[in-house]
Amino acid sequence: MREGIAAFGELGLTGRLRTAAQAERRLEECAKLGIQAVVAPDGTGVAARGGPHVVAVETLRQALGTALEPNARETEEG
Fold first, then answer.
1. Where are the chain's structural domains?
2. DSSP string, 14-47
3. DSSP state, 62?
């Protein structure tokens, strides 16, 4: 993965991602660590002000493409 990016979520058998427990807390911890962007399942929500951008994805393929692409566009969902 690129530097400054974190990822979390639960992986289903079909490759679809599901939201993980305690997503808000995970985003807070990412902010404390200086993480710039988080790749997470669609529906995770947004980080608090000053926190990382949440890049919402639906599948493992999208998550890997976003995390590995050197010039991937990161947008804050909201």
1. 5-68
2. TSBEEPPTTHHHHHHHHHHTT--EEEEETT---P
3. H
pTM, two decimal places: 0.76
Strand, coil or helix: 55: strand
CB 41 within 8 A of CB 21: no
Can you tell me the distance from the alpha carbon of 74 to that of 37, in angstroms, rounded to the nearest whole number? 7
Token readout for 3 is 């530097």
d(C-alpha 65, C-alpha 78), whole Å: 21
pLDDT digits 0-9 by tens, 25-68: 999 999 999 999 999 999 887 777 778 999 999 999 999 888 88
